[in-house]
Every structure is written in structure tokens, then in C-alpha cells.
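User: Reviewer 2 asked us to show a designed sequence for the structure in our supplementary figure. I'm pasting the C-alpha cells here. Could you produce the per-position amino acids so we can include them in the response letter?
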């Protein structure tokens, strides 16, 4: 990784710095919520949790590390690690989550 990139960022992430905002908006819309509700720390319904997992995985696919993802979705690095593991499991077993992820990843 180049020394001139911000910590936790990849060239792909720098090329599209607004992707996280778009991905969050798509995930929130799919859950029937607002972006602020998706990012809230209140106990969330499963639709919002799945949206967060989809956003986390989409950001990781673009080369962001857990700390950088955490900054964007307002969670700590251990929560991001858990979310990424759950996203991989859900992609393999849940067609609805796979559809949601495809929409978020295309944002």
C-alpha cells in the first residue's frame, strides 16, 4: 500500500470516496429506514442489522480495513470483524441477504 494513502484506505476507496454514503443510503432504503437509523446505536430490527452487514462487506471488498469501515458505520473494529464474518455466512446461505448485498455493492 502506498505511503500517501490515509490509514486503512485502498486506491479503490480513494477513487470513490462517496461509495460508503451511497451504500448506506441503499441499505437503509431497502430496510425502509433512514441512513441515520441504519447507523444508530439503538437496538435495531434485523433488516437494519442485515443492511449494516451488507455495507461492511461492500466496503471490505473495496479494500477498506476494519478500522476504516468502523469509522464509516460508527462501530468499533471488533463489531466490524463480527459483521464481516456474518456477511460471508449469510452470502452463502441466505438468498435475500445476497440480493440485498448485490444492491448495496452496486451503489
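Assistant: Here is a per-position design you can include in the supplement:
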Amino acid at each position: 500500500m502506498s505511503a500517501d494513502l490515509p490509514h486503512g484506505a485502498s486506491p479503490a476507496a480513494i477513487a470513490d470516496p462517496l461509495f460508503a454514503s451511497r451504500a448506506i443510503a441503499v441499505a437503509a432504503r431497502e430496510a425502509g429506514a433512514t441512513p441515520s437509523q441504519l447507523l444508530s446505536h439503538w437496538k435495531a430490527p434485523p433488516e437494519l442489522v442485515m443492511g449494516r452487514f451488507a455495507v461492511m462487506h461492500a466496503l471490505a471488498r473495496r479494500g477498506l480495513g476494519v478500522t476504516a469501515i468502523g469509522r464509516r458505520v460508527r462501530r468499533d473494529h471488533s463489531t466490524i470483524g463480527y459483521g464481516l464474518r456474518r456477511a460471508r455466512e449469510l452470502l452463502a446461505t441466505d438468498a435475500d441477504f445476497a440480493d440485498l448485498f448485490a444492491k448495496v455493492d452496486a451503489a
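For the response letter, you might also mention the following. Residues 16-36+43-105 form a domain with the Chromosomal Replication Initiator Protein Dnaa; Chain: A; fold (CATH 1.10.1750.10). Helices lie at 11-15, 19-31, 35-39, 46-61, 66-73, 77-93, 95-105.
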